[in-house]
Design brief:
Blueprint lengths: L1 E4 L1 H7 L3 E3 L9 H9 L3 H7 L6 E4 L2 E3 L11 E5 L6
Parallel strand pairs: 1-5
Antiparallel strand pairs: 1-2, 3-4, 3-5
Helix pairs in contact: 2-3
């Protein structure tokens, strides 16, 4: 799966994007976020507060941890947006 990181998340991890082989037990958005937290100290720090990290799966916003990853080829992680 292609994982893409934006804004301060990209800066903190020092990764803009990567191709990742997800473990077989990562089947939902919640699983993906838990797996991200397990990838090391920087990942744990970034993903510790899920409310400050938004996710898009195949370029569609997703926030339900039960969302299936079946058919998902890209996950993007970004901070909440504000507008005016």
């Amino acid at each position: 799966m292609k994982l893409v990181y934006f804004s301060w998340i990209r800066e903190r991890l020092d990764i803009a994007e990567e191709e990742a082989e997800l473990p077989a037990n990562v089947m939902t958005l919640g699983d993906l976020l838990s797996w991200q937290k397990s990838r090391g100290e920087e990942f744990a720090a970034v993903f510790a507060h899920e409310k400050v990290v938004r996710v898009a799966l195949n370029q569609e916003h997703a926030d339900d941890p039960a969302t299936s990853l079946e058919g998902v080829t890209e996950a993007a992680f970004f901070p909440p947006m504000t507008g005016g």
